[in-house]
Write a structure and sequence with these properties.
Distance between the termini: 32 Å
Strand content: 15-25%
Radius of gyration: 17 Å
Number of helices: 11
Order of helices and strands: EEHEHEHEHHHEEHHEHEHH
Largest sheet: 7 strands, mixed
Helix content: 25-40%
Number of strands: 9
Strand order of the largest sheet: 1-3-2-4-5-8-9
Length: 250
């Protein structure tokens, strides 16, 4: 596994990124999280500098990797964006002794019937290789700073580090499975941050306080797209810090 140590001391905080991302996309958040504990990020299989390539994984494989990190880190707060939020639910359900609390950002437990097919033409339209990091920023606009963490320089220019076929396989599993049974087994405190302009099926995050096994705080962030911590960083920070203060007794 490839683990990024962001610093800090005290109780563990594990950061799980979304599809296509990597641990370092959390850098702006990790800087202020270090005031609350030891902050660690994990590159998921098929992403960043993870040695795992070639697909053939299930959600349980990603969860096992995260659990291995927590066995070293100790009982921790797990913060996940999108795919990382899904893995945080499953981690808390399967390893309650390792997870003190979870923060999930813009993810729905039931996406059955969805496939990656509508995304493919968009991904295939990218002007790869990008000529420079400035080209990456320009192409992706408001999310340009996020995407420059997700590319690497090769001889002919900049390419996405992850393999799209691996990403398609990961996301297609979500379209075949219902993850509500995992959510219903989560007993620890949860903060559920939903984007006003969410990429997820509507209404599901609002159901979390009724269906999860522990106390859930649900927040819809006005004006935010799927990457809430990027689009509305001050609102996201305020919500997470208030949540952590309660969980950690600060």
């Amino acid at each position: 596994m490839h683990i990024v140590e962001f610093g800090g001391e005290g109780p563990g905080i594990l950061l799980l990124h979304g599809l296509m991302g990597r641990a370092t996309t959390w850098w702006p958040v990790a800087k202020w999280l270090t005031a609350y504990g030891r902050v660690v990020g994990l590159d998921a299989r098929g992403h960043g500098r993870s040695p795992h390539r070639g697909g053939g994984w299930r959600t349980e494989d990603f969860v096992d990797d995260a659990a291995e990190v927590l066995r070293d880190l100790g009982p921790s707060t797990v913060i996940g964006h999108s795919m990382g939020g899904l893995h945080a639910w499953c981690l808390a359900a399967g390893h309650p002794d390792l997870v003190r609390a979870v923060v999930v950002e813009d993810i729905a437990p039931d996406q059955r019937g969805k496939t990656v097919d509508p995304w493919k033409s968009y991904f295939e339209s990218w002007p790869v290789p990008f000529r420079s990091l400035a080209h990456v920023r320009e192409f992706f606009g408001d999310l340009g700073d996020w995407f420059i963490e997700c590319v690497e320089e090769r001889e002919d220019g900049y390419h996405l580090i992850a393999d799209l076929e691996d990403l398609y396989e990961i996301a297609n599993e979500w379209g075949r499975r219902d993850y509500w049974p995992f959510v219903e087994r989560v007993r620890c405190p949860m903060l559920a941050v939903e984007a006003e302009h969410s990429a997820m099926p509507p209404g599901q995050m609002a159901e979390l306080p009724k269906r999860a096994g522990g106390v859930v705080h649900h927040l819809v962030v006005e004006g935010a797209g799927h990457v809430v911590h990027h689009d509305r960083p001050a609102v996201y920070r305020g919500a997470v810090e208030a949540f952590l203060s309660g969980v950690l007794g600060r």
